[in-house]
Amino acid sequence: MKTVVVTDSTSYIPKHIRENLNIHMIPLSVVINGETYREEIDISASDFYDEVRNGQRLPTTTQPPIGEFEELYNELSKEYDAIISIHLSSGISGTFQGAVAAADMLEGAKVYPYDSEISCMAQGFYVLAAATMAQNGKNPEEILARLDDLKASMRAYFMVDDLSHLQRGGRLSSAQALIGSLLNIKPILHFVDKVIVPFEKIRTRKKAMKRIEELLDEDARKGQPLQATIIHANRVEEAASWKKELSALYPHVDFTISYFGPVIGTHLGEGAMGLCWTKK
């Protein structure tokens, strides 16, 4: 049985890795000043943050049309027997439901839509694992079992630097955002039951990042091999510095660096930092 993997752009897997592992990507889009840009195709993360910084209006985001799923699935069904389609949490986007709807209409290949219940490179961990297993000839049931195994140990926390994006996106009231900014509060967020919720409110950026380190330490101190990724919203140097620091503390953890692209960056804002990890 030949199996192929599909994901969406919010896994933020670099193009050269997607090509090497035969991962097919469907983009979500951002609308900036009336112009629609497909992330990872029409606009880069750094260009997006430049646009937002200089603009007056907060961008909006849109999920892929079902027709894009149908078109890709139909094309892939000519060559593959099974399609594993891994997407960002159904609690924050209708993208997964789009994959389910398109899968129901497909004749030929069997589509296995998979709700990562998360996003960004945490979602990417599932995609990379699935694509590697597919290249090694594993069947869909084996791959899905591995994804569920990863999900059991997946943890992710992220800190928001600028509360105005959460406020404008409807996740904070104006009063909460104002008070939070005055007190220099940097909320730590995480996913619970597929949606983003507050974990803790921390005063200052440095303390918030230290708290996320403590959460990693709870798992890393057990000595089991972990894979982890630092995710940043246009903070390349800070992410590299954090990676160097954490790699020295936890040599048994395989750290990489990823980023919050335009769609997720619309809601978190520039300066956000995250850390996610799971067992290898």
Automatic annotation (TrEMBL):
<dbReference type="Pfam" id="PF02645">
    <property type="entry name" value="DegV"/>
</dbReference>
<dbReference type="InterPro" id="IPR050270">
    <property type="entry name" value="DegV_domain_contain"/>
</dbReference>
<keyword id="KW-0446">Lipid-binding</keyword>
<dbReference type="InterPro" id="IPR043168">
    <property type="entry name" value="DegV_C"/>
</dbReference>
<protein>
    <submittedName>
        <fullName>DegV family protein with EDD domain</fullName>
    </submittedName>
</protein>
<dbReference type="InterPro" id="IPR003797">
    <property type="entry name" value="DegV"/>
</dbReference>
